[in-house]
Structure formats: structure tokens, C-alpha cells
């Protein structure tokens, strides 16, 4: 973030600094006083943008594939950049949003007792051979061989690794259970046809949690606890979701649910009962089953993007790796397991897919890379006198609303008109865009405020702005 701070020696016109030259350390970014002068300026954000659709397609090695809305918007405004098929550079705005999402996920997982770990991406072949998934996963598993000829895969999921880790702890007692271990790491899947940007890539971030319980009853309780945490997460993000019964696939186990965001571009078909709470991935239903198994109402079909998946595993993995604990009688027993995934980069792209308009990105308010964009007048314009006022407003907001420290970006490209910069700001989806236009020269000064999530445009004084922004929630 420091790279975006204005430097004392190369001050853009707007970021005047009245600090003492003696306190200036050459070559370092300057912090005059906490919360002051650290103005984040847009011209320094690394943001390759304005790619035309044909450039996007050629960068991705595609000729005619139409991309989906989130992929197109994310490429156009410089949130991601293609690296190779199914792999993207995540650029500064995206990383900020991703880090916020991870913070929300951490809060939810830790609220139910989750402990964060971080396992290697390289996963030894022996572990996968033990469960036979080395063969079952087929070509989706990205395999590598080291200089000694030893085989590994780049982990698409970590049931084997975590169960072997827990099995190595010979002193595990029932008193230490339930054990909920999770990580947020890069995962790899050699997709035959990667598409839709971050929605279906070959390298992506996933949150995967693995739970170990002393009995099937306790494991079921943990299962519903994690499902509740997922519901809480999607509520906080303001995303409509459905929890559907799902196929266990190559992970295995006896029960599974998917968390789906209903949207047309989704690749999963969901059957939903309009009369009761029944909903299922069509994969799990008999093709002739057109009526709800619970209440017999006709099922309606919709498409969804899978953003979360939960599995009740039982002892499928603990029996193979001998992951045991000692029970209250001192006897060794196999742990009852569950595993729980969230597609982290996919949630980000799916949220953009469902919330955005055709031309403008909309973020879940907690995840917006920056909450506020300040637009000062154009250099040389009639309103140019309000430029200094914008700088003061910047400092005032970050001081008066502490949670917005680091969340306010100043669009210092004052060679552009306010209109052009407003268009960019709306496209990028900052929840609040504040413009110092004509009315900023009135006494008291009024600023034009675009509240993008509600679509309102209001004129507020400095005090009114602070009152509005105090309500902004951040993570
Ligand atoms: Zn029903």
C-alpha cells in the first residue's frame, strides 16, 4: 500500500505537504502524522485497463469464445490480467477485495472454533495412492516429478494431507475434539476447458476445512455448525444463495450439500421446490423425478454457480490413514470426519457476476477494494479552486471516520474532466464517489455524493458526509 502514498518530493498538486523537511527520510515514503497526509492516489495504482474485447480474447488464446460479464468487466477495468489459459494475475484492486473476503471467512471459521493452518501445494503421490485417488482423479490432477524422480501433485484438495497429519499425532484425546482445521490456499485443477475467468480457472484460491469428531452424532453437529457459518458468510456479503443436496463425487462420504448462487451463467442445474425447502443439484435426482420428493409439488429448475461444498465423510479417510483418538475409556477410535470447501476467488467473481450491471461493477459492500473515491475538479476548470478543499476533505474523512483509513482513493488524474473520472469510478464500483464540483465553491461547500449501491445522488456538506460515511462497515 505504501507504493500508493504520495511522496514528499514528488507531490502531485493536490497532495500538498506542509511537513518539516528535516523529518523527511530520502527514498522513503513519508508519514507526517498518523492518519494525515497519507493520501492514496489513483494515478499510482497499477491497473492495466481498457482492454478491448478482441485484445482480451487474444490474450487468452481464444478466437471466438464469448466471455461472461464478470470476466469481461474484470479484464476491462484492470482487476485481473490473463497469464495462461485458466490462470490470471490478480491485480491490486482484486487482491484488496480478496484479502477482505479472507478476513470475513476467517471471522466466520474462527467463530465456530476453526484453527487456520497452511499446507504445502506439493502433495506426495503416496498419499493419493493410498486412497486410490491418484488414479481416480485422472487428468484433472496436475502431476509433477522432482529431480529425484519422486511424484507429486499440486493439490486440488487436501483430505489426504490433513488426515495423514492428524494421524501422525499419536496422543490425540477425545478432549481435544472436535478439531476444526482450515486453510485458504491456492489449489490446482487441470480443467479440460478453463473458462469464465476466475469462475473456472486452473489455479484458484479455496478455503478448505477438515473436521475431526469423536462420534457420528458429534460430527453431524459440526456439519450443521459449518453450514450455518456458510449461511452467515453469504448473508454478510449480501449474496442470495441456495443450499442444495449434492453428489459426493470424487471426495466421497455419505452426505453432501452445495451452496449455489443462482445466475444464468452458472454451470450447475438446480431443482428447487417452490412450496417447501427442498432443493437439489439435478445430478442427484432421478431424471424422471419432476416432483418434489418431500411435498410432491412440481420442481422448478434454475442455474447456479457452486461457491461452497460440504461433505460428511465419516471414516472414509481416517480409516485409510489410521487417524485415531483415545476415547474416555482410553481406547483408540477412528475420527469421524467432514470437509468443507469455499471457492474464494470464485466467490469474488460470482459476486461480481450477480451484482453488477452490464457496464458497472458492483461489489458486496464489505469487499469493495476502496470504499470511497474522491474526485477533485479538472485542472484549469472554473471549479479548480476547490482542488485544495478536496485534499482537506480527504484528510478530514480519514481522521473523523477511522474505519475508512486506507479506504479512500483520490482520483488525481486532474487532466481529465470530472465526467470522465466519474464514469471510470462508476465502472469500478466504489460504493461512494464524492465529487468536488461547482457547489464545492459555495459557503458552506457542498459535495456531490454518488451512493452506488443504492443509486442515490445527494449533495452533502463535510459534516453530512462524515455522518453518512460513519455508517460504512469495513472488515
Ligand atoms: Zn417440496
TrEMBL record:
<comment type="function">
    <text>Mitochondrial aminoacyl-tRNA synthetase that catalyzes the specific attachment of the proline amino acid (aa) to the homologous transfer RNA (tRNA), further participating in protein synthesis. The reaction occurs in a two steps: proline is first activated by ATP to form Pro-AMP and then transferred to the acceptor end of tRNA(Pro).</text>
</comment>
<keyword id="KW-0547">Nucleotide-binding</keyword>
<keyword id="KW-0067">ATP-binding</keyword>
<dbReference type="Pfam" id="PF00587">
    <property type="entry name" value="tRNA-synt_2b"/>
</dbReference>
<keyword id="KW-0648">Protein biosynthesis</keyword>
<comment type="similarity">
    <text>Belongs to the class-II aminoacyl-tRNA synthetase family.</text>
</comment>
<dbReference type="GO" id="GO:0006433">
    <property type="term" value="P:prolyl-tRNA aminoacylation"/>
</dbReference>
<dbReference type="GO" id="GO:0005759">
    <property type="term" value="C:mitochondrial matrix"/>
</dbReference>
<dbReference type="InterPro" id="IPR050062">
    <property type="entry name" value="Pro-tRNA_synthetase"/>
</dbReference>
<dbReference type="GO" id="GO:0004827">
    <property type="term" value="F:proline-tRNA ligase activity"/>
</dbReference>
<dbReference type="InterPro" id="IPR002314">
    <property type="entry name" value="aa-tRNA-synt_IIb"/>
</dbReference>
<dbReference type="Pfam" id="PF03129">
    <property type="entry name" value="HGTP_anticodon"/>
</dbReference>
<feature type="domain" description="Aminoacyl-transfer RNA synthetases class-II family profile">
    <location>
        <begin position="99"/>
        <end position="376"/>
    </location>
</feature>
<dbReference type="GO" id="GO:0005524">
    <property type="term" value="F:ATP binding"/>
</dbReference>
<dbReference type="InterPro" id="IPR004154">
    <property type="entry name" value="Anticodon-bd"/>
</dbReference>
<keyword id="KW-0030">Aminoacyl-tRNA synthetase</keyword>
<keyword id="KW-0809">Transit peptide</keyword>
<dbReference type="InterPro" id="IPR045864">
    <property type="entry name" value="aa-tRNA-synth_II/BPL/LPL"/>
</dbReference>
<dbReference type="InterPro" id="IPR006195">
    <property type="entry name" value="aa-tRNA-synth_II"/>
</dbReference>
<dbReference type="InterPro" id="IPR036621">
    <property type="entry name" value="Anticodon-bd_dom_sf"/>
</dbReference>
<keyword id="KW-0496">Mitochondrion</keyword>
<keyword id="KW-0436">Ligase</keyword>
<dbReference type="InterPro" id="IPR002316">
    <property type="entry name" value="Pro-tRNA-ligase_IIa"/>
</dbReference>
<dbReference type="InterPro" id="IPR033730">
    <property type="entry name" value="ProRS_core_prok"/>
</dbReference>
<protein>
    <recommendedName>
        <fullName>Probable proline--tRNA ligase, mitochondrial</fullName>
        <ecNumber>6.1.1.15</ecNumber>
    </recommendedName>
</protein>
Amino acid at each position: 500500500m505504501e507504493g500508493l502514498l504520495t511522496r514528499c518530493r514528488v507531490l502531485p498538486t493536490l497532495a500538498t505537504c506542509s511537513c518539516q523537511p528535516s523529518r523527511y527520510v530520502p527514498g522513503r515514503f513519508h508519514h507526517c502524522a498518523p492518519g494525515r497526509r497519507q493520501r492514496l492516489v489513483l494515478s499510482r495504482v497499477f491497473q492495466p485497463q481498457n482492454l478491448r474485447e478482441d485484445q482480451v480474447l487474444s490474450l487468452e488464446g481464444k478466437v471466438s469464445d464469448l466471455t461472461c460479464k464478470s470476466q469481461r468487466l474484470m479484464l476491462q477495468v484492470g482487476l485481473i490480467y490473463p497469464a495462461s489459459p485458466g490462470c490470471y494475475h490478480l491485480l491490486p484492486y482484486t487482491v484488496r477485495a480478496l484479502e477482505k473476503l479472507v478476513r470475513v471467512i476467517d471471522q466466520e471459521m474462527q467463530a465456530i472454533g476453526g484453527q487456520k493452518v497452511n499446507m504445502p501445494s506439493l502433495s506426495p503421490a503416496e498419499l493419493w495412492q493410498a486412497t486410490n485417488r491418484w488414479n481416480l482423479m485422472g487428468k484433472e490432477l496436475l502431476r509433477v516429478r522432482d529431480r529425484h524422480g519422486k511424484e507429486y501433485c499440486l493439490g486440488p484438495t487436501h483430505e489426504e494431507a490433513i488426515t495423514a497429519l492428524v494421524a501422525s499425532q499419536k496422543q490425540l484425546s477425545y478432549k481435544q475434539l472436535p478439531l476444526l482445521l482450515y486453510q485458504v490456499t491456492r489449489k490446482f485443477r487441470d480443467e479440460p476447458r478453463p473458462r469464465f475467468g476466475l469462475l473456472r480457472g486452473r489455479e484458484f484460491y479455496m478455503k478448505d476445512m477438515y473436521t475431526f469428531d469423536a462420534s457420528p452424532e458429534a460430527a453431524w453437529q459440526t456439519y450443521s455448525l459449518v453450514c450455518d457459518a456458510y449461511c452467515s458468510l453469504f448473508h454478510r456479503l449480501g449474496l442470495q444463495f441456495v443450499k442444495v443436496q449434492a453428489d459426493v463425487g470424487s471426495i466421497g462420504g455419505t452426505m453432501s450439500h452445495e451452496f449455489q448462487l443462482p445466475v444464468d451463467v452458472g454451470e450447475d442445474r438446480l431443482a428447487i421446490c417452490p412450496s417447501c425447502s427442498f432443493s437439489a443439484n439435478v445430478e442427484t435426482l432421478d431424471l424422471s423425478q419432476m416432483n418434489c420428493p418431500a411435498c410432491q409439488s412440481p420442481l422448478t429448475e434454475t442455474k447456479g454457480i457452486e461457491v461452497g461444498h460440504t461433505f460428511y465423510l465419516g471414516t472414509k479417510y481416517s480409516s485409510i490413514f489410521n487417524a485415531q483418538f483415545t476415547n474416555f475409556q482410553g481406547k483408540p477410535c477412528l475420527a469421524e470426519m467432514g470437509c468443507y470447501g469455499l471457492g474464494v476467488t470464485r466467490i469474488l467473481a460470482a459476486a461480481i457476476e450477480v451484482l453488477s450491471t452490464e457496464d458497472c461493477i458492483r461489489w458486496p459492500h464489505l469487499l469493495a477494494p476502496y470504499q470511497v473515491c474522491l474526485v477533485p475538479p479538472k485542472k484549469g476548470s472554473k471549479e479548480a479552486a476547490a482542488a485544495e478543499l478536496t485534499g482537506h476533505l480527504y484528510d478530514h474523512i480519514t481522521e473523523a471516520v477511522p474505519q475508512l483509513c486506507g479506504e479512500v482513493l483520490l482520483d488525481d488524474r486532474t487532466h481529465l474532466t470530472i465526467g470522465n473520472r466519474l464514469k471510470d469510478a462508476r465502472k469500478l464500483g466504489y460504493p461512494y464517489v464524492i465529487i468536488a464540483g461547482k457547489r464545492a465553491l459555495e459557503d458552506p461547500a457542498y459535495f456531490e455524493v454518488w451512493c452506488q449501491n443504492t443509486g442515490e445522488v445527494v449533495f452533502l456538506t463535510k459534516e453530512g458526509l462524515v455522518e453518512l460515511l460513519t455508517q460504512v462497515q469495513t472488515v
